[in-house]
Structure formats: structure tokens, C-alpha cells
């Protein structure tokens, strides 16, 4: 009897040891198609293929007691009794008492899963096991045989190549129910049999020959409709773009429900791109009435190397027009100022794809203006005694225009040179004062507002004519009258013998006027005081104008704005009189690119604005000459700087 008891005790100890060894010993012989990594730091399980490529991932709940290390699965159970007691479905033993299992159930019944615990998936919540959804637990149970390697570690989101899958949240208005991922056909959740999917833009795609391969656009979704990154998608097949032909490629995925989706796309390698048109200049500037060769250096070919230059269609949109019109001629004469738009249109014959390139041609009239006169600039003759001649008379019959026909008459400036060589500009609505009889020279100037495309300078047209002021005729001398004939005296009568003369009365001396002046030429003073008006002793003129300044290219300057002549007149009584006026001020504008270059007279017509068109130094020399011939000047310097860039030009 004692021997039987001893044998039973030994057998019981042996069985206990075997159970202990069965729970704690890992067989280090890896099997299966996958290995598993459990990231306790993020509560994510990622399944890898043996070439270390991520295959699928599951959200989980590990626990503080979950061990760190590398293990090999040991046992599997459809149901297993857990602490509590509670129950896990689709259990796979990792090591000792540590299992992969579904969120626990109150009973060994699929309708009693704890909803509070289910909603904790994605955070630490277990007593050491690794909880997953029922669908994930079943995938591990079905696809990871015993001795599958499991690595448990503390990491971060960077260690999860597929990211952290989204999980379904269940209502906690009830304490238990179905796992929404359970594939059981009796599951009341619609997600029991929903499927993931891969949506592609097209299942038939053209791939460019001899170019880098680009996969079709696609988007993956899991069984709950959540978007997945393309890292979840696995590719089977390849495309050789150096060999024309058709290549089927299959894209597949396994989502966190353990369900799969796939789609096959056929790539056809050939000419899948537009033809290329080369040699088109984006913008050029040409002179009015010049010509341009529209096809010069323009070529085209497709990706197969086929030359398609002769297939290019040229279309033109002229200034002021809205529609493009096709042209056959290669040469275009530019009969309009403004912007032409040239379209080069080409359809690739291998795939019908259209290429369009555009060129802009800016046409400018930069030639010298033409000044004409109805009287061919005949001399202007003025009668003797004429003192002034106004601008209107000088400009009468004179016109100016550009080669394109644009009128420039309003931009004509006039300068008059008197017989002594003094030059004065005649402003509009003003008159020129004639100093003396003689021959004057009238010069007309007109500048093109655009710089010459050839010289880079403003071209000025100049015409001149004579102005003659006649001299006054001298007065005829007055002839003296004939002297009167002398009167012949008659014979004297006989003298009357006078009686004895009376004694003559001596006249009194006349009274001499009283004159206290020592100057015998000064007239005698009366009883009223003498009033003498003060006279001008000296006059000083000063031209007041804006100070020197700097401004960017594109600034517009009005030369006579805020410019006056101030005259200070010193009187004989010691007082001063100050006057200001704007009349009679002449000016000349010069331009100098830099200090080492000679100044250039811009010949700016009176009344025109000065447009600062280039960097450099501009000078406005103001001159005023009074009626006595005294002249004063003032030089105003404007330094032009480059215009600042826009905050996307």
C-alpha cells in the first residue's frame, strides 16, 4: 500500500514538473512565415516576413508585467481560462503564463466580452498578457504556428513601420457583447464580414518608355473603412520601362482584422508622354515694321526619339485681338505696336497628347520722330516794333509723329536763339520777348519716349527756321521855312524938337529873390517840402528749387514743380523788396551713367515730365536772365537707383 502511495506521489511530481517546464521553457527553433514584435511603449503588434518587411499590424493592450525579451510560441487554445476567472478566445502562449488572446469574456460565450476592457485597446491594461481584438487573435492563431518568434520591447512610434491601427470603439451603455471584429456569422456587428480594399486610379496604365517607373495612384482602407498608409500595401510583380510591353502587378494587404484585399494593375510600357518642343523663347522685343522668323531654331520630338518638327502648327494672336489664327508663313512682319502672342501646337501621333508652347513678342516704335511744317519751315517775318511772339504762333502748322503714326505734336519743345546767341526755351501758353531787330533762329525738338533698340539712347528729331524782326524806318527831317524879306524902312519924318526934358526918375533896384542854397543852379525853394521816390540800387536773383535727391527707376519728375525765382531789390532808402515769380525760368536736363562717362543732353521738351528710366545721375540746370541781361543758375542733382523687387515677382 505504501509502495502505491509512493508511486502516485512520484507520478504527481513528474506531471507537475512537466507542466512547469511546459509553461516556462521556449523552444528556440523558429518556424512559420512571420515573426511578431510587441511594442509595449505604443501597444502595437507588428507582423514581419522573414525578409524583415512589415506585413500587418494590430492594436493591443500589454501590461506592466509583460516581460521584455525574445520568445517562441509554445501552445494554442481556442478558449483559455484567465484570472478572475475570465476567458480568452484564440489564445497563443508566448512564455509561461503570458498569452496572446482576445479581450477577455465574462463567460466562455462570444456575447459576453467586456466592453470597458475592449475600449482600452491601445493602452496598457493587462496583467501581463498581450490583449488584441478577436480578429487579430484569430489571425495569430491561424497564421503563426508553434515556435513562432516573438520579440517584446519598449519602443516609440518610430518603431512601428505601419503605424498604430485605428480601433473600433463600442458603446459602454451595456457591460458586455460581441467583439465587433469577430468573424462569427452570428455576430450582430456589420464589421463581422466587411473587407479591406485598395482603390486604384486605373487598372490599365501607360508607363513611359525609358523613364523612371511611377506606380499608379492608390489608397488603402481597412475593414472598418479607416485609411491606411501605402506601407500596408505589398507588391507582387515589376515593370521594365526599358522594354516595351505589358506588365501585370498585384497590390495586396492584410489589415488589423486579419482580412486581405488585392488588386491587379496592368502597365503598358510605351510612349506615354507629350512631345517636347524646343527652342521657343519666352519673350523677345522687336522694332516696329521689322520681321521675325517664327520657326528659327524651333524643333520637336517625342520620347521615342521621333522628330516631329514639321508637325508643329504655328498660331498668332495680334495686339488687340482675342483669337489665335493659324499661319503657314515662317516670317511675320510686325505691323502693329504692342504684344503679339505666338502659340506652337503639336499633337504626339503615338498617343494624341498635345503640347503647347508660347512666345511673347513686344513690338516698340523706337525710331526718331518726324517733324513737319505746312510751310516747309519758311522764315517767320515780324513787323518792326513787334515786342513778343507767342508759342502758338511759333508752333502754328508744325506737327510731329512717330513712324507708327502716333502723334507727338504735343511733345514738341521750342528754343529761340537771339542775334547775340542767347538761347531761351519758349513754354506752352507763354511768349518770347524780342530784344532787338534782327534774325533769330527757332529750333523745334521732339524726342521718342522709348529708347532706341539699336543704340539704347533716346532719339531726338530737330528742325529749325529763321525769325526776322524788321528794323523801324527813320523819321523824315523837317525842312526850315524861307526867311522873310527884310522890311525897307520909309524915310524918317522930320524930328520934332522936344521941349525941355523933365528930370528922369531913377527906378528902384528890383528885389532879389531870397535863396539860401549855395548851389546857384538849384531852383528857389517854395514853402512846401520836396518828396523824392526811392530808386532801385541793386537786384539779386536766386532760383529756389527742390534739393538734391535719390529716387528709384520709374519715378516721374516734373522739372518746374516748386521752382521759383526770388528777387531781392535793394532800394536807395536802405529798404529791400522781395518778389517771387515762375516766369522766365529755362532748364536743361542731362544724364550721366557714371562719373567716368560724358554727360548727355536729353533735349527734354518744355512741359514734358522727366521719367527716370535708368540708374545714373540726372541734372536739371535752371537758368534765369533778367531784362538787363544778368543771368543766374541753379543745378539740381537726382541720383537714380535700381527699383526694389516685388514681395512674389
TrEMBL record:
GO MF terms here are: peptidoglycan L,D-transpeptidase activity; transferase activity
Which GO biological process categories is it annotated with? cell wall organization; peptidoglycan-protein cross-linking; regulation of cell shape
Q: In which pathway does it act?
A: Cell wall biogenesis; peptidoglycan biosynthesis
Q: What Gene Ontology terms describe where this protein resides (cellular component)?
A: extracellular region
Which portions of the chain have biased composition (kind: Low complexity)? 487-516
Provide the active-site residues from the annotation.
Answer: 101, 129
- What domain of life does the UniProt record list for this protein's source? Bacteria
Q: Provide the L,D-TPase catalytic domain boundaries.
A: 34-153
Q: Which residues form a coiled coil?
A: none
Q: Which UniProt keywords apply?
A: Cell shape, Cell wall biogenesis/degradation, Peptidoglycan synthesis, Signal, Transferase
According to the record, the signal peptide region is 1-29
Q: Where is this region: Disordered?
A: 470-531
Q: What is this protein called?
A: L,D-TPase catalytic domain-containing protein
User: What species is this protein from?
Assistant: Eubacterium plexicaudatum ASF492
Amino acid at each position: 500500500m505504501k509502495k502505491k502511495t509512493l508511486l502516485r506521489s512520484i507520478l504527481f511530481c513528474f506531471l507537475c514538473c512537466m507542466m512547469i517546464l511546459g509553461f516556462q521553457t521556449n523552444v528556440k527553433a523558429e518556424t512559420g512565415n512571420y515573426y511578431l514584435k510587441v511594442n509595449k511603449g505604443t501597444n502595437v503588434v507588428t507582423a514581419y516576413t522573414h525578409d524583415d518587411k512589415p506585413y500587418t499590424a494590430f492594436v493591443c493592450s500589454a501590461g506592466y508585467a509583460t516581460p521584455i525579451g525574445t520568445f517562441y510560441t509554445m501552445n494554442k487554445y481556442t478558449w483559455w481560462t484567465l484570472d478572475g476567472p475570465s476567458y480568452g478566445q484564440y489564445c497563443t502562449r508566448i512564455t509561461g503564463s503570458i498569452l496572446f488572446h482576445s479581450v477577455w469574456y465574462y463567460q466562455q460565450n462570444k456575447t459576453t466580452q467586456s466592453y470597458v476592457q475592449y475600449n482600452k485597446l491601445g493602452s496598457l491594461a493587462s496583467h501581463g498578457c498581450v490583449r488584441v481584438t478577436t480578429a487579430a487573435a484569430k489571425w495569430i492563431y491561424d497564421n503563426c504556428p508553434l515556435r513562432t518568434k516573438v520579440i517584446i520591447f519598449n519602443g516609440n512610434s518610430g518603431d512601428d513601420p505601419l503605424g498604430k491601427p485605428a480601433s473600433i470603439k463600442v458603446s459602454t451603455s451595456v457591460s458586455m457583447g460581441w467583439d465587433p471584429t469577430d468573424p462569427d456569422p452570428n455576430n450582430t456587428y456589420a464589421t463581422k464580414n466587411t473587407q479591406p480594399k485598395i482603390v486604384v486610379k486605373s487598372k490599365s496604365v501607360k508607363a513611359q518608355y525609358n523613364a523612371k517607373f511611377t506606380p499608379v495612384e492608390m489608397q488603402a482602407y481597412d475593414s472598418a473603412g479607416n485609411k491606411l498608409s501605402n506601407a500596408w500595401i505589398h507588391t507582387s510583380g515589376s515593370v521594365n520601362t526599358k522594354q516595351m510591353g505589358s506588365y501585370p502587378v498585384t497590390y495586396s494587404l492584410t489589415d488589423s482584422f486579419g482580412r486581405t484585399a488585392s488588386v491587379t494593375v496592368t502597365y503598358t510600357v510605351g510612349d506615354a508622354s507629350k512631345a517636347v518642343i524646343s527652342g521657343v523663347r519666352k519673350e523677345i522685343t522687336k522694332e516696329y515694321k521689322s520681321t521675325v522668323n517664327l520657326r528659327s531654331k524651333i524643333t520637336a520630338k517625342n520620347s521615342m526619339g521621333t522628330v516631329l518638327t514639321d508637325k508643329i502648327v504655328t498660331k498668332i494672336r495680334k495686339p488687340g485681338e482675342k483669337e489665335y489664327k493659324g499661319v503657314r508663313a515662317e516670317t511675320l512682319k510686325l505691323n502693329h505696336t504692342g504684344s503679339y502672342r505666338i502659340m506652337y501646337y503639336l499633337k504626339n501621333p503615338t498617343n494624341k497628347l498635345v503640347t503647347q508652347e508660347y512666345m511673347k513678342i513686344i513690338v516698340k516704335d523706337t525710331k526718331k520722330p518726324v517733324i513737319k511744317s505746312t510751310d516747309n519751315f519758311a522764315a517767320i517775318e515780324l513787323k518792326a516794333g513787334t515786342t513778343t511772339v507767342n508759342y502758338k504762333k511759333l508752333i502754328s502748322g508744325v506737327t510731329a509723329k512717330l513712324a507708327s503714326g502716333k502723334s507727338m505734336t504735343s511733345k514738341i519743345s521750342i528754343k529761340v536763339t537771339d542775334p547775340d546767341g542767347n538761347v531761351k526755351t519758349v513754354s506752352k501758353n507763354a511768349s518770347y520777348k524780342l530784344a532787338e531787330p534782327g534774325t533769330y533762329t527757332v529750333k523745334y525738338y521732339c524726342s521718342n519716349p522709348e529708347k532706341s533698340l539699336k543704340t539704347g539712347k533716346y532719339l531726338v528729331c530737330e528742325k529749325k527756321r529763321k525769325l526776322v524782326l524788321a528794323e523801324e524806318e527813320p523819321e523824315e527831317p523837317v525842312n526850315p521855312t524861307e526867311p522873310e524879306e527884310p522890311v525897307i524902312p520909309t524915310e524918317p519924318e522930320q524930328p520934332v524938337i522936344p521941349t525941355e526934358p523933365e528930370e528922369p526918375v531913377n527906378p528902384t533896384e528890383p528885389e532879389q529873390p531870397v535863396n539860401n542854397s549855395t548851389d546857384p543852379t538849384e531852383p528857389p525853394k517854395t514853402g512846401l517840402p520836396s518828396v523824392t521816390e526811392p530808386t532801385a540800387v541793386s537786384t539779386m536773383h536766386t532760383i529756389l528749387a527742390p534739393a538734391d535727391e535719390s529716387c528709384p527707376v520709374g519715378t516721374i519728375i516734373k522739372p518746374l514743380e516748386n521752382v521759383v525765382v526770388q528777387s531781392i531789390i535793394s532800394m536807395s532808402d536802405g529798404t529791400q523788396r522781395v518778389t517771387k515769380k515762375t516766369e522766365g525760368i529755362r532748364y536743361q536736363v542731362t544724364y550721366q551713367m557714371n562719373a567716368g562717362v560724358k554727360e548727355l543732353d536729353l533735349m527734354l521738351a518744355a512741359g514734358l515730365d522727366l521719367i527716370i528710366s535708368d540708374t545714373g545721375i540726372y541734372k536739371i540746370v535752371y537758368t534765369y536772365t533778367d531784362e538787363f541781361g544778368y543771368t543766374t543758375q541753379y543745378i539740381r542733382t537726382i541720383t537714380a537707383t535700381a527699383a526694389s523687387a516685388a514681395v512674389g515677382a
